[in-house]
Structure formats: C-alpha cells, structure tokens
Design a protein that fits this description.
Layout: H1 2-16, H2 21-32, H3 36-43, H4 47-54, H5 64-77, H6 82-92, H7 116-138, H8 161-167, E1 189-190, E2 195-199, E3 203-209, E4 215-221, E5 226-228, E6 236-240, E7 246-250, E8 253-254, E9 265-269, H9 272-279, E10 282-283, H10 289-295
Parallel strand pairs: 1-10
Antiparallel strand pairs: 2-5, 2-7, 3-4, 3-6, 6-9, 7-8
Helix pairs in contact: 5-6
C-alpha cells in the first residue's frame, strides 16, 4: 500500500512537471536503482522496446495493444500505477488500434451475370452430351452386322446365254441344264457344342452359377486370352464390364456381339441352347466329337 501511494505521488509530480511517459518511467527507474537490462530479463519485454518507451519513440513500438501492455508492465516494475501511466500513454501516442476493414457488400452488377439464353444453351448442351454418352454405352450406335451374301437364283441365266443359243446349230440337241449350286445359307448357331469366350481387349468378367452362386472364374481376361466354358458345372452365366470386346463361339460358330463396347451385361447364360435362343438362330447342328468333349472338360482360361 505504501509503495502504491508513493508511485501515485511520483506520477502526480511527473504530470505537474510536464513529464512525458518516457521521461516519467526513466526517472522512476533511476530512482529505484534498476537497469533496463535487468527489467528486460524480469518482465520479458524486449530491451529495444523498453528503450523506445523511455525515448518516447512510439514509431519503434509494435501495435497499440502490445505497446500498452509493455508500458503498463514497465510502470508496475518501477512502482508506478500501471493504469494511470497507460492512460497517459494512450493520450500521448499516435498509435491506433487495428480496425479490420469490413467486406464490401456491394451487389454484383447484373451485366456480369450470364444471360438466361446462355444458361438455357448450356443446359441443352449438357443434356445432349449426357444423352450421347448413354447411347454410346448402350451399343445403339454400333454398326449393324453385315447381311449374309445372297446366292444367285437358279432361274437366272448369264447375259450371253441367248446369243450363244442363237449361234448353236439347229440340229444339235440342247444340252440338259446343269443344276445350279445350292444357295449359301447363313451360319446357324448350333444347339450343342463347346462355348468359348475370346477377349479382343482387356476386360473384367465373372462366370458363375446363378443357382449355387459358385464362381467358375472371376478376374481380368487380357487381350487375346481364351476361356473354355465348362459344361459339367450346370448352366453358368456371364457378367462383364465391356460386352462388345468379347467374342463368343458355339461349336466354332461365332455369335453376334453380346453388347456395346462399354456396355455392362449380366445374366447371359453360357450354354449352346440358351445362346441360340438369345439370337433367334437355333438350328440342331451336331457338334464335332472333339468339341463336344471340350464342352465337358474343366474350365481352363488360356492366354496368347
């Protein structure tokens, strides 16, 4: 209490004599017999800031909140009233507290916003792109399979047949007409025989039994690899991520594509009757004995 009263009296004397905060603190420190270096170690205030306070060099001090704290700590260490000294320092200094700049709330210029027509055009382009990707993935845009060659009609005669008949002698009997070659029939899908899968590109496949859930094969078929579908594990079904890159043959007869190049398929039954029914070209063709035996063999995916 006595020390506080002495500090207040010394502060009042300093005001009466027109002393600044720096001069007042320097005088109080000298009267207390304290050194600036000792005060810096005791208060943990940097020595350069204590020297700037005594020299009234406010420009060398940090922001106002920190400078106020340093001044009050200095005053308390030399026995002065920190609140009174801090009030005088605030009145003398030109330091100002940092006031954050409020964000601008100016409304956006409508001229910078996209027009309604541009927004509709962008939405239309997005719909077209999404629709095109869907059609491509479904295989609708794949080229149609070429039609089988049409055999010539047996009734058709070569263009020069009439002229040759006119040049023939009248007394020569006409030669009996030769039988025309039989028309080439389109390749029929056998209802019996080995089912073989061939990957033209890398594709992930899963071959499993829908009844038991047991997997016969699951993994990546690299380009050129061949998988002989086993015939002794019941009807197996196929799931694939890129149906269009898998070639399927039954007894050596190549079937049409199972889907588009990026189409995912599931549930395709890998038996000769089911595949023939799927493509609507079932013909009871007896498979060769070697292929029939292969259909009963264990699954063995082969690589190139």
């Amino acid at each position: 209490m006595v020390e506080d009263e002495q500090g207040k009296a010394a502060f009042a004397d300093g005001i009466g004599r027109g002393l600044t905060v720096g001069a007042l603190l320097a005088e109080a420190r000298a009267a207390a017999g304290r050194d600036l270096a000792d005060l810096a170690r005791e208060t943990r205030v940097p020595l350069r800031h204590l020297m700037a306070i005594e020299a009234d060099d406010h420009e060398a001090l940090p922001a106002l909140p920190y400078a106020m704290g340093f001044v009050k700590t200095f005053a308390r260490s030399v026995g002065l009233n920190p609140e009174a000294v801090g009030a005088q320092f605030r009145a003398e200094t030109r330091l100002t507290p940092h006031v954050p700049t409020p964000p601008s709330l100016e409304p956006m210029d409508e001229a910078r916003l996209p027009s309604r027509g541009l927004a509709f055009a962008g939405a239309a382009v997005l719909v077209l792109v999404v629709g095109g990707l869907g059609l491509y993935g479904s295989g609708v845009l794949d080229p149609a399979p070429s039609a089988p060659p049409v055999a010539a009609s047996p009734d058709a005669a070569p263009p020069n047949a009439a002229s040759q008949a006119d040049k023939a002698p009248a007394d020569v009997a006409a030669a009996p007409p030769t039988a025309a070659p039989a028309a080439a029939a389109p390749a029929a899908i056998p209802t019996v025989g080995a089912v073989v899968l061939t990957a033209r590109e890398d594709v992930w496949v899963k071959i499993y039994s829908r009844t038991t859930g047991r997997r016969a094969f699951q993994g990546l078929m690299v380009a050129g690899s061949i998988y002989n579908v086993p015939g002794d594990q019941g009807p197996l079904v196929l799931r694939a991520g890129r149906a269009g890159v898998i070639d399927v043959t039954v007894a050596g007869v190549k079937l049409p594509s199972l889907g588009g190049p990026v189409e995912t398929i599931d549930g395709v039954v890998l038996t000769a009757p089911a595949l023939a029914e799927r493509f609507g070209a079932a013909t009871p063709v007896q498979a060769p004995e070697s292929q029939a035996g292969a259909s009963r063999a264990a699954p063995s995916p082969a690589t190139r």
